[in-house]
């Protein structure tokens, strides 16, 4: 290569062609290679590469100030990559990694992900204060699990998703207990299978105390309204505010339903006479997914939604001065069942500002026909009382969209009302000015002179 470079009097192109002719079986250097050789020869006096370490960025940090520069860069901003730190400190990536590993730092990679609300981890120390002695306006849903349990592992992402879905529900908490670490707690609560999901409803104080007596004990379940056989004896045996349990070891197999359709099994109260022992009632019928668990949880929440019939619809919605948000649904509609918890959250967010109601279109077909309902579910907003207007349809079942739609509609209505009031006030002021008649005490008492200052009226 040196001979080829020297022969054509430092012409890189000619040197490249000459090298290719003389050594046809070798890999042919490009013109840039010969240019770099010439430059190296002029600067260093040799064609061979310089000794490693004499030029370029050092592979190893030999100066304390460079090491301090790397550590300072990481402590000030952990987010920059090692490549950026190497470029800023004039070190190699290997040198930066060497410094970081020596100080116990490790590089990491991160990606943007949706944040799921953490589930509250309960222990033996705080279980009594948070569950047994909980406030009456709190509801807890607790998962008792074991880390080695396969079903528990499958439930974990669904449980995290459930916590996210329930974040907008006031005073509703999602918790979990690791029964491998909290063995005494789970044994005391009678946990015999994993996972066990228990609901501690509103107006309850946990499980209450269970007293084993010689009289037969009966199991009681919150969701079943059948009266107990011996009410007085049951009150001394089991607290009537006991928790409802979703037991995974039920004899009923889990089953899948069609998309968007959920079936609710209203199990009868199971009682078994067994002297001195307790037979626990089992709540079953749902697959263990975040959506099905949320639907089950939804049944225990106090509803701010008024069930409307033709009479109450006409009196409250059509002729009332309050703003109403009404859900027209059908019980057999899968989308309606899916939308019910969403509408519940919307009603709670709008409580005190907008009243919420729902109409069963299976029962009241004529009412839904008059309202122009052609599909289920249909949500309509009624801003002002009218005998002939059946509200404005909201073209979405998204919670955020409906809340934004209602907020914008209320602001628009308020602005229009104020504009009309100001126009009426200005017109009234012109009349008074043209009449050139001052307001008497009688006029002031009848408020006929206050139109010019009117800022808000009721339509």
From TrEMBL:
Q: Where is the signal peptide?
A: none
The cross-references to InterPro entries, in alphabetical order and at most eight, read:
ER_disulfide_reductase, Thioredoxin-like_sf, Thioredoxin_CS, Thioredoxin_domain
Transmembrane parts of this sequence? none
- Give the Pfam families listed for this entry: Thioredoxin
Single biological process term from Gene Ontology: IRE1-mediated unfolded protein response
Q: Which GO terms describe its molecular function?
A: misfolded protein binding; oxidoreductase activity, acting on a sulfur group of donors, disulfide as acceptor; protein-disulfide reductase activity
Q: Which domain of life is it from?
A: Eukaryota
The record ties this protein, via Gene3D superfamilies, to:
Glutaredoxin
Q: Which PROSITE patterns is this protein grouped with? A: THIOREDOXIN_1, THIOREDOXIN_2
Gene Ontology CC annotations of this record: endoplasmic reticulum lumen
**Start and end of every Thioredoxin domain?**
71-243, 297-411
Protein name per its UniProtKB record? Thioredoxin domain-containing protein
Species whose genome carries this gene: Timema bartmani
Q: What broad taxonomic lineage does this protein's source fall under?
A: Eukaryota, Metazoa, Ecdysozoa, Arthropoda, Hexapoda
